[in-house]
Design brief:
Number of strands: 15
Structural class: alpha+beta
Distance between the termini: 27 Å
Radius of gyration: 20 Å
Order of helices and strands: EEHHEEEHEHEHEHEEEEHHHEHHHEE
Strand order of the largest sheet: 7-6-8-9-1-10-15-14-13
Helix content: 25-40%
Number of helices: 12
């Protein structure tokens, strides 16, 4: 009989610089290349985002920042600058490296039953920058892990990438019950925001933020109860009609997000078919799903808050209560969309809110493709 694979010791961090949504809205709206129509779109996008605050590694955007030479934002003139991709990626390399190591160390330190010598695999996730040796290498060196640790990096997959990282970690642990997998996601989305009148880019400017998350996945029989979820199953689906509506490419002045206003509608139209195969494996849950009552049987919902409209459509289609949507909406309100790290923030909020042992958690995230990743989890008894 195979052992259960568990996600435990989940930790999250955000950079120190806070972006108040009204203030950053006014900065984007005041740029000289933005006309009246662009200003109206900016106002509507920022005001309707469901976001109060976000965080960024760009210290120049802090109202109290003092810089000798502006790179991203000149507070004296109020102008947003447009540095090249190299400049943006250089800042990613330095700031992401620090966050990868910091949040990974916190996850490991938070586990009373494990230490650095126990880690057998490191899986890192990011789509907002590149460098080699990469974050997987830096975590091994900084935390004193064995050189023999198996390292994997999931790069440039977008907002859903933490889900295949958890699935891969689960598969490692199923193949080797002694495995201890450190999964770490860091995204610095704000490095690629820039002034524009393009509605898709305006939506991206209103949503994206920086954040980091890490957890441990293992099937070992550990003795100390810590907040945990059992990883029960995963499923991947593609809504091919949305391929051109959500994409992530590299431009001369940063990475370029395509996030069209059609995405919420596409997700709303396809979400039932996208996640049905996951519930079809679950017996009584399958019947509840087909009858439109899955929200009555699955208590907790960890939904990637790609935007308020996406959450609205999912709530409507799956008949979820406001309480079930609260972890996703509160994560969006306080932190914005931190790409792949965001779903781990939502799962942590569910655990921190005292989810009862044995209760089920449905997770889902969306990204380029349009790809929908879903998972079912169970809160482990003994959560404190």
């Amino acid at each position: 009989m195979s052992r259960s694979v568990v996600l435990r010791s989940l930790r999250t961090i955000v950079p120190d610089t806070v972006l108040a949504q009204p203030e950053i809205r006014d900065i984007f709206a005041a740029q000289p290349d933005v006309g009246r129509l662009g200003q109206r779109i900016i106002g509507a996008s920022f005001n309707g985002s469901g976001i109060d605050t976000r965080h960024t590694v760009i210290e120049e955007l802090s109202p109290t920042a003092h810089v000798d030479e502006a790179v991203f934002y000149d507070r004296g003139t109020g102008l947003l600058r447009s540095p090249g991709t190299k400049v943006r990626n250089d800042l990613y390399t330095s700031e992401a490296s620090r966050l990868f190591v910091d949040v990974a160390r916190r996850a490991l330190d938070a586990d009373p039953d494990l230490n650095a010598s126990d880690v057998t695999h490191v899986v890192t996730v990011s789509c907002t920058g590149f460098h080699a040796p990469g974050p997987d290498y830096e975590i091994v060196r900084a935390l004193g892990l064995s050189d023999a640790v198996q390292r994997y990096h999931l790069g440039f997959m977008g907002c859903y990438a933490a889900m295949p990282a958890l699935r891969a970690a689960s598969q490692f642990c199923t193949a080797d019950p002694g495995a201890v997998v450190l999964v770490v996601s860091v995204e610095l989305c704000t490095l690629h925001l820039r002034s524009s009148e393009d509605p898709d880019l305006i939506v991206a400017n209103s949503l994206f933020a920086d954040g980091a998350a890490a957890c441990i996945v293992t099937a070992r029989d550990l003795t100390t109860p810590v907040p945990s979820v059992r990883l029960d199953g995963f499923h991947t689906a593609i809504a091919a009609e949305g391929e051109k509506d959500m994409a992530w490419t590299i431009g001369d002045n940063g990475f370029e997000m395509i996030l069209s206003t059609a995405v919420p509608q596409i997700i709303g139209e396809t979400i039932i078919g996208a996640i049905r195969p996951l519930y079809a494996r679950e017996g009584e849950l399958a019947a509840a799903f087909d009858e439109g009552r899955v929200g009555e049987r699955v208590e907790h919902w960890a939904i990637h808050p790609g935007g308020r409209s996406i959450l609205d459509r999912i709530q409507e289609r799956l008949h979820l209560t406001d309480a079930q949507m609260r972890p996703a909406r509160e994560t969006l309100r306080e932190n914005g969309n931190m790409s792949s790290a965001t779903i781990l923030f939502v799962i942590k909020r569910i655990l921190d809110d005292g989810a009862a042992g044995g209760s089920r958690v449905a997770a889902m995230a969306f990204g380029p493709g349009l790809t929908a990743e879903s998972a079912l989890m169970t809160v482990v008894a003994g959560v404190v």
